[in-house]
């Protein structure tokens, strides 16, 4: 159950769709997420308004085909799984959307089961002791 946000410069709907597919396919292939577990926000930026900024950090020359990929998922993946994920996203972004791997910037944020609600105001993956505990009261409120 990853939550993915993709921000891309010069990205029309077709490019955003291709990038979304690239990330999703990589998550399925390398991490083992189910194929029907897709939650994504895809945002294109025209570049004229300066909404995304970047530098050639670590000697990687980026250009206006830059793509930021932010993935939030539960903790527990190994460094090798994450490396495979990064590599596969870059490969598929190139294959599906023509985005050079050097322009694919990826960050992963991990959290715990209690940090997710898929609807109905319920933390579906939380264990029962986390869900059933009473809410703390705040003095003065």
What does this structure look like?
By secondary structure, the chain is an alpha/beta fold. It has a single domain (3-114), classed as Macrophage Migration Inhibitory Factor (2-Layer Sandwich), CATH 3.30.429.10. The chain is 30% helix and 21% strand. The chain has a four-stranded mixed sheet with strand order 2-1-3-4, with helices on one face. The protein is globular, with a radius of gyration of 18 Å.
Helix content: 25-40%
Tell me, what's the shape? globular
Output the CATH homologous superfamily: Macrophage Migration Inhibitory Factor
* Portion in strands: 15-25%
CATH class: Alpha Beta
- How large, in whole angstroms, is the Cα Rg? 18 Å
SSE order: EHEEHEH
- The CA-CA distance between the termini, in Å, is 35 Å
The tally of structural domains comes to 1
Break the fold down into its secondary structure elements and pairings.
Layout lengths: L2 E7 L3 H18 L9 E6 L21 E8 L4 H19 L6 E8 L16 H5 L9
Parallel strand pairs: 1-2, 3-4
Antiparallel strand pairs: 1-3
Can you describe this structure in just a few lines?
The chain is of the alpha/beta class and 141 residues long. It has helices at residues 13-30, 79-97, 128-132; strands at residues 3-9, 40-45, 67-74, 104-111. α1 packs antiparallel against α2.
What labels describe this entry?
141 residues, alpha/beta, Macrophage Migration Inhibitory Factor, globular
């Amino acid at each position: 159950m990853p939550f993915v946000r993709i921000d891309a410069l010069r990205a029309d709907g077709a490019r955003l769709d291709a990038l979304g597919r690239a990330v999703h396919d990589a998550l399925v292939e390398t991490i083992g997420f189910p194929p029907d577990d897709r939650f994504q926000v895809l945002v294109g930026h025209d570049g004229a308004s300066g909404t995304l900024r970047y530098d050639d950090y670590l000697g990687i020359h980026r250009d206006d085909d830059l793509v930021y990929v932010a993935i939030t998922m539960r903790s527990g993946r190994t460094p090798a799984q994450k490396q495979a994920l990064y590599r596969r996203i870059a490969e598929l972004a190139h294959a599906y959307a023509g985005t050079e791997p050097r322009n694919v910037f990826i960050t992963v944020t991990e959290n715990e089961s209690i940090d997710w609600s898929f609807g109905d105001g319920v933390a579906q993956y939380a264990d029962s002791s986390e869900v059933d505990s009473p809410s703390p009261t705040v003095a003065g409120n």
